[in-house]
Design goal:
The protein has 266 residues and is an all-alpha fold. The chain is built from 13 helices and no strands.
């Protein structure tokens, strides 16, 4: 509990410093919103073209697909707001030796690296995603109760943790190899594909890849399945298992990678 309170105080201070720095330069504050918002609109247009002539995908109708798109967009917006810009900078800090500075601070290096570049300019994307989710629920004409909504929120939080774990695992490779280009290309291709197709559309080896090796396929699929009542106990246990597995993997890769890290001063 003491460690948690310490991290919470650090997070609050990091947010304050980041917000203050962005408001000094207005373009830095509104720039991410404009760029991310433009990408968001283009994604919606692309989704509209893809699904305009498709009745069902894996048994999901248009309402479920809209809910899926909104859910993936929400996870991506949470990612962009909280930790993407921090975690994404890890390879550069490893190569440049800036990681040395984080290792000397009285706080977890990974924690500070993850949350030092919080992006308030991406917050409106969360609101846009919620609007898409609400529209998808309306199109499904679903009768939702408090339990279904709470289950959905639970899985969104769990999948946001998985999203973070995946980014940490991939960026931790910078502690082991010189070039991150291939790993980032794999990540980009996996996310791009799974933003367009829900996990229920994958079968055989593709399901093995996107449900376990690169579990982007479950990130938005499981929250949607929980909301529409299509999740059983085995699937719920599997989802929690995958998140726990990648949380442990992220922790292990980071800790072992730090042991291999050659300080810029060495």
């Amino acid at each position: 509990m003491k460690h948690f309170k310490k991290n919470l105080r650090v997070l609050r201070e990091l947010f304050y410093l980041r917000f203050h720095g962005l408001t000094v330069f207005r373009l830095d504050f509104f720039g991410p919103f404009f760029v991310d918002g433009s990408l968001f609109v283009m994604q919606l247009l692309a989704f509209g073209v893809i699904y305009s002539n498709v009745d069902t995908i894996g048994g999901w109708h248009q309402g479920e697909m809209i809910l899926y798109i909104g859910t993936f967009s929400l996870l991506n917006a949470i990612n962009m707001t909280l930790y993407f810009f921090g975690v994404n900078g890890i390879p550069y800090k490893v190569r440049s030796g800036e990681l040395d500075l984080y290792l000397t601070k009285p706080v977890s290096p990974l924690f500070r690296l993850s949350f030092e570049n919080i992006s308030p300019g991406s917050v409106p994307l969360i609101m846009m995603s919620i609007c898409i989710i609400a529209y998808g629920v309306h199109r499904m004409e679903a009768q939702l109760d408090a339990v279904r909504i709470l289950e959905y929120l639970f899985w969104v939080i769990i999948m946001a943790i998985l999203y973070y774990d995946m980014e940490v695992v991939i960026r931790s490779f910078s502690l082991y190899v010189l070039s991150m280009a291939r790993m980032e290309q794999i990540e980009e291709a996996g996310i791009d594909l799974c933003m367009k197709l829900p996990g229920i559309a994958f079968y055989g080896v593709y399901k093995f890849i996107f449900y376990l090796l690169l579990p982007y396929g479950i990130m938005a699929t499981l929250p949607v399945q929980s909301m529409i009542g299509d999740m059983d106990c085995m699937l719920a246990v599997y989802g929690i298992f995958v998140v726990g597995l990648f949380s442990a993997l992220a922790h292990l890769m980071w800790k072992q990678g730090l042991k291999r890290y050659n300080s810029a001063s060495s």
